[in-house]
Write a structure and sequence with these properties.
With 285 residues, the protein is an alpha/beta fold.
């Protein structure tokens, strides 16, 4: 489903009017001005999957932030806007379909990283409790008796230790502490599956970060299925060849001058992989 149909960036002249309005003030940065006019890039038309490709400094993340801010996407992490960002966004224009999305969400690689840190923190806390319970089990298992028959919890702990294995003793007491036994890549995949629902616009900034090649392919299939079966629209910045290869994706090459749409197999980053494997083709035989 294509909810966001088109988006118009500012021309060089329109950016100039912003500078005229703010001519009495002094700024260290004019971000996000002077990024897209020199690329002769103004109008973006969207498909179910639209990808912005380019190297560091090409404007991929800036473009996503502009679009996300203009269409009021929710987001977890804040962005460093600068003095001109809101003025720029205010003057942009866009066209939506007559059918509204259920949600509009912008997700960055930083959001995934924060999620992984949260999991690591949870696991660290649970592991510390696990160690304490293991020591408690050993003390109770080899205890000679009870100090007082009135201490029910103490009696129960000693009885459990003497009749159960350490593993069962510890796990029962960790029932309310869910230790997460997944790799970073698997946890990142769970993050995407949790965040992406039905009938939404999802603006993803380099979602391949923290993912192995195998998991990038899984994410690729998940995005394709979300489009096909759950009527989602994706706007993505990436240089992952696996995500660039998604079926029917429209790809803008922000490294080209002027910016143009390209087939994924012609992109420099993808050709680099192709040439490398081609040169080492005999090693695969």
């Amino acid at each position: 489903m294509v909810y966001l149909k088109s988006f118009s960036l500012l021309t060089d002249f329109q950016e100039g009017t912003i500078l005229e309005i703010e001519s009495r003030r002094i700024f260290n940065s004019v971000y996000p001005l002077y990024i897209f006019p020199i690329k002769d890039f103004k109008d973006v038309s969207f498909k179910e999957i639209t990808i912005f490709y380019g190297g560091n400094g090409s404007g991929k993340s800036t473009l996503l932030n502009i679009i996300a801010s203009k269409i009021a996407a929710s987001r977890k992490s804040s962005i460093d806007k600068g003095a001109f960002f809101d003025l720029y966004v205010k003057r942009c224009e866009y066209e939506m379909s007559i059918e509204d999305p259920m949600e509009i969400k912008a997700i960055t690689s930083d959001d995934v990283f924060d999620y992984l840190l949260d999991i690591r923190s949870i696991n660290t806390s649970v592991n510390r409790r696990k160690e304490r319970l293991s020591q408690e089990f050993l003390q109770n298992k080899f205890s000679d008796g009870f100090d007082s028959f009135g201490e029910y919890e103490r009696i129960k702990e000693v009885t459990d230790a003497k009749t159960k294995t350490m593993s069962r003793y510890v796990r029962e007491r960790l029932a309310n502490n869910n230790i997460i036994e997944h790799s970073n890549g698997e946890s990142a995949l769970f993050f995407w599956e949790r965040e992406i629902k039905e009938n939404g616009i999802y603006i993803l900034d380099e979602p391949e970060n923290s993912l192995s090649a195998e998991n990038q392919i899984k994410l690729m299939k998940f995005i394709e299925e979300s489009v096909r079966f759950y009527h989602c629209q994706f706007i993505i910045s990436t240089h992952s060849p696996f995500l660039l290869a998604m079926r029917d994706a429209k790809i803008y090459n922000l490294d080209s001058l002027p910016v143009k749409t390209q087939k994924w197999t012609t992109l420099p980053n993808v050709r680099l992989y192709y040439d490398f494997f081609k040169e080492n083709e005999e090693d695969f035989d």
